[in-house]
Design brief:
Layout (H helix, E strand, L loop, with lengths): L1 H24 L6 E5 L6 H17 L3 E5 L6 H7 L7 E6 H10 L7 H4 E16 L8 H10 L5 E4 L5 H13 L4 E4 L3 H9 L5 E5 H9 L4 E5 L25 E9 L4 H15 L2 H10 L2 E5 L1 H22 L5
Parallel strand pairs: 1-2, 1-3, 5-6, 5-7
Antiparallel strand pairs: 3-9, 4-7, 4-8, 4-9, 4-10
């Protein structure tokens, strides 16, 4: 009887294994949810919807975009940990994946423990910008002035604890300067004050300042990627401005909950990577100030392992806290 039970169990496992493999080979058999941990209408939402539309166009998948805004993206990320069947993706980014773990005392998820990296999607540098009529023509001009007037020059960013704010903290320590932080509730509020001469420099993503830069309403002093941006080839990087290897990038990437079947993760990686290589997608990214950043699970995972301790160190050294 014992041997019969073993045979029955082995047969059941075999059938289950074949059924599981069959279901994965037919993937997807139902709509795929893409959680966007941000409000509709913003940069994260636009990027996510571009990926969703292109997946539908190229492979016919039905992608349901699910906006879950709140707590800096924490609500959306937590929701994504609840579904590990491969039918729920989430668009993670620097702020909620690499920065949030060190910024919040009780985070409802762990980026390395609770998620599987699928693929990187895009990246945009932070831009240090001044008003066109400002005396700061270069980043060196601003640093020189900041050294002459410690903690007097004003430096605006879209919120305490944001990537732009922490990039400013990071740069202060790198350059050996101090300026007066002026946090705003978003770059759309900070940029008018910059253009009006009420703020010396603004730190925000290149994407956010692209329209004003193209219109000549702001002067971008430097960007924080290691290479110059195709969207602003005449703007130098911080690295080439005298601060070698300085880098702070707003990146985006697709993740799924830990436990998602490996064949499904591989399929998602393959299809999303194909999208990122399409010329029209690259053009969309460049026009907005970003670049496609295709890279599968290994590349994405390696980035996470380098970014998490980097931003944890910046937060600890600067003493930044959020309520």
């Amino acid at each position: 009887m014992k041997s019969i039970r073993i045979l029955i169990l082995a047969g059941a496992l075999c059938v289950f294994g074949h059924a599981s493999a069959y279901a994965q080979s037919r993937y997807p058999v139902k709509p795929i949810r893409l959680i966007v941990p941000a409000p509709a209408g913003g940069a994260t939402d636009a990027l996510s919807r571009l990926v969703a539309v292109k997946l539908t166009e190229t492979v016919g998948w039905q992608i349901v975009v699910d906006n879950r805004a709140g707590m800096g993206g924490n609500i959306g990320l937590q929701a994504a940990t609840q579904a590990a069947d491969g039918y729920t993706m989430v668009m993670g980014q620097t702020s909620n994946i690499a920065i949030a773990p060190a910024l919040y005392e009780k985070l409802p998820y762990d980026p390395l423990r609770d998620f599987v990296a699928v693929t990187l999607v895009s990246a945009s540098p932070i831009a240090f910008s001044a008003a066109p009529k400002s005396s700061y023509k270069t980043l060196a001009d601003f640093v020189t002035a900041a050294k002459a007037k410690p903690a007097q020059l004003t430096y605006a960013s879209p919120g305490v604890g944001s990537l732009s704010h922490l990039t400013g903290e990071f740069f202060q320590r790198t350059a050996g300067i101090r300026f007066l932080d002026v946090p705003y509730k978003g770059s759309t509020l900070a940029l008018p004050d910059l253009m009006g001469g009420r703020i010396d420099v603004v730190s925000t993503s290149l994407e956010a300042v692209m329209p004003q830069m193209k219109a000549g309403a702001v002067r971008v002093l430097a960007i924080t990627s290691l290479q110059r941006s195709p969207a602003a080839p005449d703007v130098p990087t911080v690295s080439e401005s005298g601060y070698k290897d300085f880098q702070a990038v707003s990146w985006y990437g697709i993740l799924v909950a830990k436990g998602a079947p490996a064949p499904i993760v591989d399929r998602l990686t393959t299809e999303i990577t194909k999208i990122l290589l399409r010329p029209e997608v690259k053009e969309r990214f460049v026009a907005s100030g970003s670049v496609p950043m295709e890279g599968g699970p290994k590349a994405f995972s390696a980035l996470l392992h380098s970014e998490l301790p980097k931003w944890a160190r910046v937060i600890k050294e600067s003493g930044v806290k959020v309520e």
